[in-house]
């Protein structure tokens, strides 16, 4: 038997619990929310892993994408005199950037729905004069690209991918290290027994950039009277196989990337570990969303940029005007005449762009760098960053509340899980994306994508269910945004 006081307490507790349910934000684990979809989610990850394995460089990812687009009936922009509703069109530039569009019913001045991501990843690039012989060993000298932790690249299996132009103009594609029968390459590390002198070094100085030399051979050319015969032995091999002479490396772009493939991670296979998920995870999910869409009201666009990891410069980076040229060309072909300046301005002001990039997932092992209530968590849906940047919100887009409201209402209405986060504690560090460069055109822009562990490492970790929900979010944005 209970007394009145106990009953009152119980009522109050129930009331408080109900109120809490109504007022508090709760982000459920998506494996609880979508347990019945596990087969679909795992199947989606299989296609994604294949794309990662093929597309370890921006050029290779473009080749992969164009093949997928053509298979789905997309045609090159040059094949269209005029673009009409339902047309599927793509265009690439320098094999490093791409725009693919499904033409919508609305006129272009009402804007497009664009999902933009970058397809370059941190790596080692060969220097223009890479080939050297040292102590009867042959090396490629490299210059690292993007924000790497140099020690990640030591004592691991490496592959080479890229292009080299011979003196007669012939383009040679180099892809060595991915096939099981291929040799791989490596940057050697020092044994711990003799590493005492580096023990107190700062992490940024622990491995000097010049020490990132890739070991590529050790058998000499047989003639003992000739100098640098170890280098000659390797160059002779390259010449026999590809027709390469040393000077050809001056007109080459060869990237050193991890040789390993994408793998399932965990006993339950719930996660994906791979090189280059930043940011091919957003590129892949946006591409699949476009491929799986048949009709749209606003023209839906997938846009890939290069050079994000080094600041979005160059004529393939997001700061380049090429993206505006290409979008304006789509506009022109849709209306059948050159758009007036006011129409172009309206087009940019009315366009919505998801700057699709990865963010940090709260890692309990390194909890000290994150604000737990403003972090993204593995398996809790697509991550949205209202802003990125560093220190006092420098170098960021910072989407306005109206655009955030529109996007989150759209996701809520379509049961797409998402989480809104800030990458890391204030003043812990920071990072930028392509968002601010597209926002400069007047578009509505917000950062969103998949959260991950070990970003910029050779083995980045994502959750299969976040990858799948990001695909769903992009599809909803394209079809209903
Ligand atoms: Mn990125
Ligand atoms: Mn990055």
Question: Your description of this structure?
Answer:
- This protein is α/β, with parallel strands linked by helices.
- The chain folds into 2 domains: 30-121 and 275-480, 3-Layer(aba) Sandwich (Aminopeptidase), CATH 3.40.630.10; 123-258, Roll (Aminopeptidase i, Domain 2).
- 31% of the residues lie in helices and 23% in strands.
- The longest helix is centred in the first third of the chain and has 20 residues, at 4-23.
- It is globular.
- The model has no long low-confidence stretch (mean pLDDT 96).
- It binds manganese (II) ion (2 copies).
- One manganese (II) ion is lined by residues 118, 278-279, 308, 357-358.
Rg over alpha carbons: 25 Å
How would a crystallographer describe the biggest sheet?
Answer: 9 strands, mixed
**Cofactors, ions, other ligands:** manganese (II) ion
- CATH architecture label of the largest domain: 3-Layer(aba) Sandwich
CATH topology of the largest domain: Aminopeptidase
Low-confidence stretches: none
Q: What separation lies between the terminal Cα atoms?
A: 57 Å
DSSP strand (E) fraction?
A: 15-25%
């Amino acid at each position: 038997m209970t007394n009145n006081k106990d009953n009152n307490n119980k009522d109050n507790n129930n009331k408080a619990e109900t109120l809490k349910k109504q007022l508090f934000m709760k982000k459920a684990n998506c494996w609880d929310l979508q347990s019945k979809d596990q087969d679909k989610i795992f199947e989606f990850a299989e296609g994604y892993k294949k794309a990662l394995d093929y597309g370890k460089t921006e050029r290779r990812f473009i080749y992969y994408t164009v093949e997928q687009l053509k298979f789905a009936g997309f045609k090159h922009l040059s094949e269209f005199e005029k673009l009409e509703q339902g047309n599927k069109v793509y265009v690439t530039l320098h094999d490093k950037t791409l725009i693919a569009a499904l033409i919508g019913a609305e006129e272009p001045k009402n804007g497009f729905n664009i999902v933009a991501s970058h397809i370059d990843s941190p790596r080692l690039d060969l220097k223009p004069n890479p080939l050297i012989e040292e102590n009867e060993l042959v090396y490629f000298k490299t210059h690292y690209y993007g924000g790497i932790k140099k020690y990640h690249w030591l004592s691991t299996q490496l592959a080479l991918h890229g292009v080299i132009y011979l003196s007669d103009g012939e383009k040679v594609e180099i892809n060595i290290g991915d096939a099981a029968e291929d040799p791989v390459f490596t940057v050697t590390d020092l044994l711990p027994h003799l590493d005492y002198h580096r023990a107190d070094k700062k992490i940024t100085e622990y491995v000097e950039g010049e020490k990132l030399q890739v070991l590529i051979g050790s058998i000499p050319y047989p003639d003992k009277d000739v100098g640098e015969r170890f280098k000659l032995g390797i160059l002779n091999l390259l010449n026999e196989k590809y027709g390469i002479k040393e000077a050809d490396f001056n007109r080459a772009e060869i990237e050193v990337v991890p040789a390993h493939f994408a793998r399932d991670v965990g006993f339950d296979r719930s996660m994906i570990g791979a090189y280059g998920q930043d940011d091919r995870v957003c590129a892949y999910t946006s591409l699949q969303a476009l491929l799986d869409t048949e009709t749209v009201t606003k023209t839906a666009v997938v846009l890939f940029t290069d050079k994000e990891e080094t600041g979005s410069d160059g004529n393939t980076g997001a700061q380049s005007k090429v993206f505006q040229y290409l979008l304006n060309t789509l506009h022109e072909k849709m209306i059948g005449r050159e758009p007036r300046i006011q129409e172009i301005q309206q087009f940019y002001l009315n366009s919505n762009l998801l700057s699709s990039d990865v963010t940090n997932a709260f890692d309990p092992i390194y909890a000290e760098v994150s604000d737990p209530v403003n972090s993204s968590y593995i398996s809790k849906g697509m991550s949205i960053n209202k802003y990125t940047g560093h220190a006092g919100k420098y170098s960021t887009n910072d989407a306005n509340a109206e655009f955030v409201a529109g996007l989150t209402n759209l996701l809520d209405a379509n049961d797409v899980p998402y989480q809104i986060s800030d990458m890391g504690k204030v003043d812990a560090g920071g990072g930028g994306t392509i968002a601010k460069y597209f926002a400069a055109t007047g578009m509505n822009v917000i950062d969103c994508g998949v959260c991950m562990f070990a970003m910029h490492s050779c083995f980045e970790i994502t959750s299969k269910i976040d990858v799948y929900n990001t695909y769903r979010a992009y599809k909803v944005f394209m079809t209903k945004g």
